[in-house]
Structures are given as structure tokens and as C-alpha cells.
């Protein structure tokens, strides 16, 4: 998957195991470099110097509620309807495919929803980029060819956002999981239809509250 970069985002309060992890998600490496103290950087975030954040008590309440909801969901899960994973049994060497495989079950089951950003070249050699609703793609496309290396996962005109740099063609479409907000002065946003949180895809921002960003260069 030469020349491609992918980033995925997860909306899950269970994403952060501790309150410190939650604070760290809002601290940039540059801030740690200048402050020379990660604990001080956390305190600045906790005290609201970077905007509104959850208090430790609020975080722990939300985490406990999330854990209870997950436990209830697991208890009521019908084991006769096991999820078939396209990545199962595959020996994946590509970092991007490994990242997709790690998130496949959670996206198929609805535990999380991920947005994938890809910038790559199509079969015509044209540079294209776009944002893909991973959970929706899993439901509408067969991923076995992707995990087998027979096809490359590429953004298309029906995805959340698509741009062909050669042809100067762009499209945007809301999906069952995300609403595209493209006229915001702060840049492109995706609104999660389930928890109503806004996802800012600007790499210079923290992304979204209780969301995680992972970059994969392949």
C-alpha cells in the first residue's frame, strides 16, 4: 500500500484505561518537550487550560457506566450468531492491514465506530484521498480480498469524503454512523450519530473527547 497513510478514530469511553491516559490524549509531544514534565502538562489539561475536560470523578463514573453496559451486552450476546472475521487466519505483514484486523471485530459488533483516512494512488496513478466509515464498509463490502492482499482498500465517491487531486473532484456523503459537517469554520467534522460527539479530523487537534487516533504509514 505504497504512499498511503491511514488514521482511524474510535468512539469508546473504554478507550482510556485510566484518567491519566485520558489527560495524556489531550497533551501534545511539543507541550511535553517545552514543559519538561508530563505531570505538569496533565495538570494544565485537568484545570481547563486546554478547554473543557472531564473531572476525575466524571471520568470514573462514565467509565463505570461503560463497563456496566459492556458487561450487560456481553451477557445478552447470542453465541449462536458468532461474527465471521475476514481477517481470521491471515498472516498479515502490512501494518495497515494489521491495524484494520485489530479493529475488525469491534466495528462489526458495533462496540466502536472507526473512521479511516487514506491517501494513495489509484490504478490510473492519480493521487486520491478520503475518509471511510470502516463499520459501514465492513457491512457493504467483502473484506477477504483486502486482507488476502488481492485488493487495496481505497476511498471512493460513496464514502464519507473523497478527493481526486488530479481531477479536482470531491464528494461527501453521510453514512449510517456519521454525519459529515463540511461547512464548519474549524474545518471538516464528523458527527457520530450514536453518541452525538464531533470528530475533528485536523491532525493538529486532539480529534474528539474520549476518542483515539492512530496513524499508520505503509
Alpha plus pi helix count: 7
Global mean pLDDT: 83
Distance between the termini: 6 Å
Question: What is the H/E string?
Answer: EHHHHHEEHHEEEEEE
Q: What is the percentage of strand-forming residues?
A: 15-25%
Using the CA coordinates, give the radius of gyration. 19 Å
Stretches where pLDDT falls below 50 for ≥5 residues?
1-13
Which structural class matches the secondary elements?
Answer: alpha+beta
Helix content: 25-40%
Query: How would you describe the shape?
Result: globular
Please outline the major beta sheet. Answer: 6 strands, antiparallel
Number of strands: 9
Strands of the biggest beta sheet: in what spatial order? 5-4-3-2-1-9
Explain the overall architecture:
The chain has 218 residues and is α+β, with helices and mostly antiparallel strands. The protein is 31% helix and 22% strand. The chain contains seven helices and nine strands, in the order E-H-H-H-H-H-E-E-H-H-E-E-E-E-E-E. It has helices at 19-24, 29-35, 38-46, 56-75, 95-109, 134-140, 144-147; strands spanning 5-11, 114-121, 127-133, 161-164, 169-172, 178-181, 189-192, 198-200, 211-217. The strands form two sheets. A six-stranded antiparallel sheet has the order 5-4-3-2-1-9. Residues 1-13 have low confidence and may be disordered.
Amino acid at each position: 500500500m505504497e504512499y498511503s497513510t491511514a488514521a482511524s478514530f474510535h468512539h469508546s469511553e473504554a478507550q482510556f484505561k485510566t484518567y491519566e491516559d485520558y489527560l495524556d490524549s489531550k497533551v501534545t509531544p511539543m507541550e511535553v518537550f517545552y514543559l519538561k514534565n508530563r505531570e505538569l502538562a496533565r495538570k494544565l489539561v485537568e484545570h481547563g487550560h486546554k478547554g473543557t475536560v472531564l473531572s476525575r470523578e466524571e471520568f470514573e463514573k462514565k467509565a463505570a457506566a461503560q463497563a456496566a453496559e459492556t458487561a450487560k451486552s456481553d451477557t445478552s450476546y447470542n453465541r449462536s450468531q458468532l461474527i465471521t472475521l475476514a481477517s481470521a487466519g491471515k498472516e498479515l505483514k502490512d501494518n495497515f492491514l494489521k491495524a484494520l484486523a485489530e479493529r475488525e471485530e469491534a466495528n462489526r459488533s458495533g462496540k466502536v465506530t472507526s473512521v479511516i483516512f487514506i491517501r494513495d494512488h489509484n490504478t490510473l496513478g492519480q493521487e486520491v484521498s478520503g475518509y471511510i466509515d470502516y463499520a459501514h464498509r465492513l457491512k457493504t463490502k467483502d473484506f477477504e480480498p483486502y486482507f488476502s492482499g488481492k485488493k487495496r482498500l481505497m476511498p471512493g465517491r460513496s464514502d464519507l469524503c473523497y478527493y481526486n487531486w488530479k481531477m479536482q473532484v470531491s464528494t461527501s456523503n453521510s453514512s449510517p454512523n456519521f454525519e459529515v459537517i463540511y461547512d464548519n469554520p474549524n474545518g471538516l467534522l464528523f458527527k457520530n450519530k450514536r453518541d452525538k460527539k464531533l470528530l475533528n479530523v485536523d491532525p493538529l487537534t486532539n480529534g474528539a473527547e474520549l476518542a483515539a487516533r492512530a496513524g499508520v504509514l505503509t
